[in-house]
Amino acid sequence: MLISLIITTYNRPDALLLVLKSVEIQSVSPLEVIIADDGSDEKTMELINNYSVQSNLTIIHSFQNDKGFRASKSRNKAIARSNGDYIILIDGDMILHPEFIRDHAINSELGCFVQGGRVLLSHSKTSKMIENQKINLSFMDFGLKNRKNSIHSSLLSRYLSIKKNYLKGIKTCNLAFFKKDCIAINGFNNDFEGWGREDSEFSLRLMNSGIERKTLKFNAIQFHLWHHESSKNSLKINDEIMQKTINKNLSWCENGINNYL
After folding, report:
1. Domain boundaries, given as residue ranges, for the chain
2. Cys staple from 74: which of 38, 138, 144, 175, with CB 3.0 to 4.6 Å?
3. What percent of the chain has pLDDT over 70?
4. Domain 3-259 listed as CATH 3.90.550.10
């Protein structure tokens, strides 16, 4: 199976560097790494260009101009450029466990999309990691807010991961699906602008189309670098888009990935 890893980013090259380093040491490498850039300045472009030269990874920079938070469009453009059969979405502040890609590959399943978890890092831990460019983390490290999520166990994962359709905990910082299933629902809804609900609405349409949610435990681990909370000014409008999908049981959005295919 060919895997495309898509990393969303916006003006945080110091964090993106650590993420790329964690991708570099994966036990199973993705076919390609596509950086879905929502309008970062030249510092991010310079980092990507420099890193691509010395990396064994195939890195593609998918860029759109900065017109505010437009994660749906950015992800759609990146997915449209992908060559893999299977898409893994992460954010540009998520350091990956060395078995992250392998875990997602093993847990991929036709008729399912996969939601993974994350370990939250404190502000001080994040600052020290960026300063020291450290990417090795474990259960025993200080500064882990939900420490149990850092336990890697295929045995526990096999018994505690579940298939059940619900919206709580949907996050595109650790989400995987078959590309064909994404295209079948027309990808993310480009009408979402500003933070909030674009990931839940996308997942809801997957479920409405018959694709089942699979929630992973103790596998596909990632460590979330601290950051300030995003503005929620657009949440009311985005909630209305989400509610329309719920009320009409939609599995298709009109303004989606078809704009870029």
Report:
1. 3-259
2. 38
3. 100
4. yes
